């Protein structure tokens, strides 16, 4: 199982960067989790657009879905060039039906997930937890049967994240603010909350992502490290978990 950072900025991408997007690969199957601004360009450093098997979305904020239109055009153009191009499934929740319906385009098919049910996509089994965010948003616990990663998506801290993240091999935690700040209004976490979550859940390693555009982001790692004794990485393009 391989997990690679495609985009890691919160809100908007800095120069040559991308917002939230992560590529999961297992046995030749490629699943993209979120598709933020700049993701499509960066994804193609790793795989062809036509080699993407599925996309799943945590929520419909722009920094997680901005490149879906481009992905739909890419799928369409490639279908003209290669007859065997499959229709790309895009999994999303149905709490915002207007947006959900836009996931279906000529060569993409919007497919609903029920956050109360277990979802199987290719080799991956996914369970969901609704987060605390201004719009419906779902954290994901994703396993291949041997290894488990947890992606918090966008959320402020709440205790149920601990059980949901329990003993994960990798916790990908959104870290939009520094220690001492309050992210609960816009629905985001601080570095110390990420560290405390990782420690309480007993995860094997922690990635801090959905990074802020102010301050020194290396400071986030120092702050989270006061509360978590395991390995911490600040997300950057191509950061990879390999198990
Ligand atoms: Zn959001
Ligand atoms: Zn976001």
From TrEMBL:
Residue ranges of domain Metallo-beta-lactamase in the record: 18-181
Transmembrane segments: none
InterPro entries: Metallo-B-lactamas, RibonucZ/Hydroxyglut_hydro
Pfam families given in the database record: Lactamase_B_2
One example GO MF annotation: 3'-tRNA processing endoribonuclease activity
Superkingdom of origin: Bacteria
Assigned keywords, A-Z: Zinc
Gene3D superfamilies: Ribonuclease Z/Hydroxyacylglutathione hydrolase-like
Keyword Transmembrane helix: no
Protein name as catalogued: Ribonuclease BN, tRNA processing enzyme
Species name: Salinibacillus kushneri
């Amino acid at each position: 199982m391989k997990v690679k950072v495609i985009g890691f900025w919160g809100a908007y991408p800095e120069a040559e960067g991308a917002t939230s997007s992560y590529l999961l690969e297992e046995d030749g199957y490629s699943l993209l989790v979120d598709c933020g601004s700049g993701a499509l360009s960066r994804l193609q450093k790793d795989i062809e657009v036509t080699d993407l098997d599925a996309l799943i979305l945590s929520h419909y904020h722009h920094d997680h879905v901005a490149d879906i239109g481009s992905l739909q055009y890419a799928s369409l153009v490639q279908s003209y060039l290669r007859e065997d191009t499959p229709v790309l499934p895009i999994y999303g929740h149905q709490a915002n039906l207007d947006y959900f319906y836009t996931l279906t385009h000529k060569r993409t098919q919007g497919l609903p997930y029920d956050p109360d049910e277990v979802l199987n996509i290719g080799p991956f089994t996914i369970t969901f937890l609704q987060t605390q965010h201004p719009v419906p948003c779902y954290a994901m616990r994703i396993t291949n049967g041997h290894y488990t990663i947890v992606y918090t998506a966008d959320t402020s801290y709440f205790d149920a994240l601990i059980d949901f993240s329990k003993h994960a091999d990798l916790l990908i935690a959104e870290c939009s603010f520094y220690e001492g700040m309050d992210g609960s209004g816009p629905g985001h976490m601080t570095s110390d909350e990420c560290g405390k979550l990782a420690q309480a859940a007993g995860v094997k390693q922690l990635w801090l992502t959905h990074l802020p555009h102010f301050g020194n982001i290396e400071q986030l790692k120092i702050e989270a490290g006061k509360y978590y004794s395991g390995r911490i990485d600040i997300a950057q393009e191509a950061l990879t978990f390999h198990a």
